[in-house]
Amino acid sequence: MKAFAALFTAIDQSTKTTIKVNALAEYFKAADDIDKLWTIALFSGRRPKRAVSTTRLREWGAEVAGIPLWLFEDCYPIVGDLAETIALVLPPNQTTDNRPLSQWINDLRAVYKADETAKKVFVLDAWARLGGTERFIFNKLITGGMRVGVSQKLMTRALARATDRDEAELAHRLMGNWHPDDTTWHALIEAQDASADASRPYPFHLAYALEGGPEALEHPADWRAEWKWDGIRGQLILRGGEYFVWSRGEELMTDRFPELARAVDYLPDGTVLDGELLVWHPGTAHPARFNTLQPRIGRKTVPKKLLKEAPVVLHAYDLLEWQGEDVRHLPFRERRAQLETACAAMPEEAPVKLSPQLKFSTPADLHAYRDGARDAQAEGLMLKRADSPYLAGRKKGDWWKWKLAPLTIDAVMIYAQSGSGRRANLFTDFTFAVRDGEALVPFTKAYSGLTDKEFREITAWVRKNTLQRFGPVRQVTPHHVFEIAFEGIQASPRHKSGVALRFPRMLRWRQDKPLAEANTLDDLNEMLRLYG
Amino acid sequence: MSSNPVLTFTPEGIYCPAGDFYIDPWRRVDRAMITHGHSDHARWGMGRYLATHEALPVMRHRLGDIEAEGIAYGERRVIGGAIVSFHPAGHVPGSAQIRVEVGGEVWVASGDYKIIDDGLSTPFEPVRCHHFITESTFGLPVFHWEPQQTVAAYLNDWWRGCADAGKTAMLGAYSLGKAQRLISMLDPEIGPVLCHAAVENTNAVMRAQGITLPETILANKDVTAKTHPRAMVIAPPSALGSAWSKRFGPLESGFASGWMAMRGVRRRRAGDRGFIISDHADWDGLLWAIKQTEAENIYVTHGYTDIFTRYLNEQGWNAQVVPTQFEGESLDASDDSGEAA
């Protein structure tokens, strides 16, 4: 665990990419295969089976620390991380331990089926042996989610350097459904046959936001435009007679979208599509709104009724594999032409549709499309270079997203709550209200959008202007006006104001605006009427 | 409790009716007893100040021409109907807890305090009392400080690593107290210690009053990484990443504070390295201090007041939260404040 803890610390305490990649590459050169495999797994969100419930972990942590459980529970939101909270409240370790990371994981696995007493003995013994970062990592092995400031991209780069392999090939190998329990370092990284797993997706090509307008793009004829749909980005894989659906977050969602099973009837085996999962009722001109998708994401299996209420189709916009061949290197116009051919004979009831391209000749045409995006239930436009290959990850230059300007409203801050983790001692979570005569009606919360400096400033102000406390929440003097940006608005009986916002965040702190100039409930209802 | 308490909490600050004076007032009053020189405790504009002899030089340096009188630790003074004395709080040099006795009832306002001996400040001495006003900046069981020598070793290892790699080490620290404590923890064998003017001015004040500090160099505009290789620079946190810091590059920056115990805060504020070192008591320190006073009534201010108060009440004390206007600043307050220390 010591080598892994040192790596973790090196990555965690640095903000510099080169230092992180160097630390990782050095680690990958020196560590045993099994430790390397687990390191990649942990840093890409995979984890050992949970051997101990977090409830027990909290109880044992509080017990060993000699504090009441409520006190532990009160510390947790302030620290912001369960594994860290436990690591911090425990007394110092009594001894040290030289077991490597993979050995600890094995030992943890060994108590998976043991009774609770044996588990407790094991966990308490580990706490007595491990201090500092090692103890934190041990807890993380149980609670999961080893989030550290290293992206898949950086890890892949370090791996490429340490193994002398191509970065893009490694990125592809690391995708999909593997777990250290059923593969080896050799099979995952080194073996010739990388196609062992039929479900393995390709890394998604991601776009940067287009700053300014499409005027910045030279030669309009070199570009293709599409709607930027407001759904879930997904990859549909048809291989070996089966189908697989992956989300952009690399989650396998096949069982959530059973209607896509019929895709195998319309498309040949050895096809991989990139597209958007949307709720789209047959015979309607536009997809349904994003919130109709939410119940489909929320559950692992879908009842018949929901399938009827919220039927999902994949709107395909790219072709990554055709007849078993990886075609990502081909220019977008060729991939697109093949995609159009493949979709040409598709009947109306097929669960896959071709996402249209928007014809244009000047930037003005694109502006006109974008102005109509909200009506088309799209969140803007995608602009793709016609000769671009399908790249892995977020790359600048070939693909741009040009989103709609958000909706905005000026609102009054009325409650403040401190953040957690990184922002543990700042007030960062605010509740905002609109005016209704003399009254203030809360309608949304927002957490992000201010700079650290602004959060510090508002924190000092909150401390001095607290009217009342409700546990961690403070009611403050209504004074400060913030411009709240959001992507959508809809009626919601669950909210006092009658509306719910999508992606609300603070766009600006309007220190120039007095309270009397904040927007009103009538303004909010008017927005609901226009955009809801 | 008698119907007329010895100390009360007013919008101006902690007030003693029997002696007609305030402790660490934050609005202008005639007579102020000051626990220590940090700007959120020693404010400008009071008619008369009383503080320890050791705290006065810094207060004069910061507040200018004030009408102030010094008092020795332990010296008893009768002010109106109250007997007042100052006792070491161990927070920064000159810091004091203020004991107020009226008709046999004893209250202690502790100001900010820490239990461990930092080698510079007069070490904390518990004072027996009936009513104890305590801070709770780090009043959660997640805060446990390591011994000063251990942290000093981390600090010097980091500095040595930077120096060997041809980099300057720059440490953000509050100019009164924390900076001098860090300076005294450094190993002078590694390289020169350069101080930002705000820090060096406070060093000079302390040296003039007889406090021994290792040799430091004022980092004026002629002092750079070239003229002083292998250097450690001590500067107020606001100077980190500023134009001023550029001439010491290439550099690594660090931050020393109790808040660095939390990974999230460390990642937000630490720069390259965070060192957990505080001039406030940790969880065990707070509880130890409270027990030592033998007080039954505890007033909790500055920090995690609600949680700490609930815990004390469960443990059998009669504890209450002091009203919010007494709340101190935190890590993210102005650099001049010592509260984050």
Structure description:
The complex is a heterodimer of chains A (532) and B (341). Chain A is of the alpha+beta class. Chain A is 36% helix and 23% strand. Chain A has three domains: 2-143, DNA ligase i, domain 1 (Orthogonal Bundle); 205-403, D-amino Acid Aminotransferase, Chain A, domain 1, CATH 3.30.470; 407-531, Nucleic acid-binding proteins (OB fold (Dihydrolipoamide Acetyltransferase, E2P), Beta Barrel), CATH 2.40.50. Chain A has helices at residues 2-12, 17-30, 33-43, 54-65, 69-79, 82-89, 101-110, 116-129, 132-143, 152-163, 167-173, 185-190, 263-266, 294-298, 304-309, 332-344, 363-371, 452-464, 521-531, and strands at residues 205-206, 208-209, 223-229, 232-239, 242-247, 271-279, 312-322, 325-326, 352-354, 378-385, 393-394, 399-403, 407-418, 427-436, 439-446, 466-470, 473-476, 481-486, 488-491, 499-502, 505-509. In chain A, the strands form five sheets. In chain A, strands 13, 14, 15, 16, 17, 18 and 21 form a seven-stranded antiparallel sheet that branches. In chain A, strands 4, 5, 6, 7, 8 and 9 form a six-stranded mixed sheet that branches. In chain A, a hairpin with an 8-residue loop joins β13 (407-418) and β14. In chain A, α10 packs across α11. Chain A is globular. The N and C termini of chain A lie far apart (53 Å). With 341 residues, chain B is α/β, with parallel strands linked by helices. Chain B has seven helices and 19 strands. Chain B has helices at residues 56-63, 148-164, 178-185, 197-208, 263-269, 283-293, 305-314, and strands spanning 8-10, 13-16, 21-23, 31-33, 48-52, 68-71, 77-79, 82-88, 96-102, 105-109, 131-136, 168-172, 193-195, 217-218, 232-235, 251-256, 273-275, 297-303, 318-321. The two termini of chain B are 34 Å apart. At the A-B interface, α5, α6 and α18 of A face α5 and α7 of B.
